[in-house]
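Per your request, structure below.
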């Protein structure tokens, strides 16, 4: 003889629902009775499933916690603290829909463009004003009854802006005989950053990701990302990339004999110098070699400076040179002279 007891308690939003307990006695004298036992179990399972289906198809009410995100904050305002990430909504729906929404709540997007001010830093929005927009984001079959808390609070500060230069981070080496023929150009060369005033005051520039090149012999043209600030600083900028370019060319060495000028000679004196010219050695891009002549340089000696420093010679100095020229050397570094009275 065997006894079987079945009790079903179903706790749902409206309270506890109990399925009456059944007690069944069965005699298992042979294998035929086992078949009867299995049929009974199947009958009970089907009865319970049918009962659940009937109950869950009815309409119920429940409060569900929904994760939220925010969009369209005023452009001149900055969050000082993280706003709440969860809102509670009282929902009407069938049991099936409520179970799905409870265990798999969809993230809702809240429009933060229409904020009300309580003070210079404290703001709030009303969820009831966005009821229709929030309802449209929910799964079908769910109906908003009311919001448990109708307002969401925000702590906002003024958003300041500042224009700062972009600084290139680079590790570049050139093949033998090759160099930059112009400075690296960065476009754009500056960006507008926004954030708290206290933090912006400490920022003088933004940097690119590292540009790493070895033994290059061709011109540079690269798109580089600008490094972002740590999210905790609340410093942001819209520009994501910059273009870095420069002309890389083979360089050669040139030499010219260039005459020089002597300045500040007294009217009563005539000076003869030895030599009359200096030799200037320079580097220039191979493509510009034929463009360099003696007019590309201006060399001067200051007689007054030599006198004031009790020097018996003049010192030649390069005052001007062509922008195409690099790494100049003058020889000799001392110019002898005699005074003809």
């Amino acid at each position: 003889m065997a006894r079987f007891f079945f009790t079903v308690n179903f706790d749902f939003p409206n309270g506890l629902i109990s399925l009456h307990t059944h007690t069944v006695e069965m005699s298992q004298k042979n294998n035929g009775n086992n078949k009867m036992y299995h049929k009974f179990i199947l009958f009970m399972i089907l009865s319970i499933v049918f009962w659940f289906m009937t109950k869950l198809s009815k309409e119920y009410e429940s409060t569900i916690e929904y994760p939220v995100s925010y969009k369209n904050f005023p452009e001149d305002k900055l969050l000082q603290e993280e706003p709440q990430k969860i809102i509670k909504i009282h929902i009407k729906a069938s049991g099936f829909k409520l179970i799905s929404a409870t265990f798999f709540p969809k993230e809702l997007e809240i429009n933060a463009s229409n904020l009300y001010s309580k003070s210079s830093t404290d703001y709030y929005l009303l969820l009831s004003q966005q009821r229709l927009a929030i309802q449209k984001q929910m799964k079908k079959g769910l109906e908003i009854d009311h919001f448990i808390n109708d307002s969401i609070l925000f702590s906002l500060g003024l958003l300041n802006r500042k224009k700062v230069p972009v600084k290139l981070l680079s590790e570049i080496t050139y093949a033998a005989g090759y160099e930059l023929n112009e400075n690296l150009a960065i476009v754009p060369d500056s960006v507008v950053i926004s954030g708290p005033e206290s933090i912006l005051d400490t920022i003088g520039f933004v940097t690119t990701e590292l540009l790493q090149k070895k033994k290059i012999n061709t011109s540079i043209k690269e798109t580089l990302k600008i490094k972002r600030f740590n999210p905790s600083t609340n410093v942001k900028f819209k520009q994501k990339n910059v273009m870095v370019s420069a002309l890389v060319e083979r360089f050669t060495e040139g030499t010219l004999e260039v005459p020089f000028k002597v300045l500040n000679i007294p009217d009563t004196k005539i000076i003869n110098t030895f030599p009359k010219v200096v030799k200037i050695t320079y580097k220039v891009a191979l493509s510009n070699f034929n463009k360099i002549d003696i007019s590309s340089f201006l060399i001067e000696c200051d007689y007054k400076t030599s006198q004031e420093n009790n020097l018996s010679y003049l010192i030649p100095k390069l005052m001007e040179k062509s922008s195409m020229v690099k790494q100049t050397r003058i020889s000799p570094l001392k110019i002898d002279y005699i005074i003809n009275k």
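The helical segments are 31-56, 95-103, 131-137, 197-200, 303-308.

Regards,
D.
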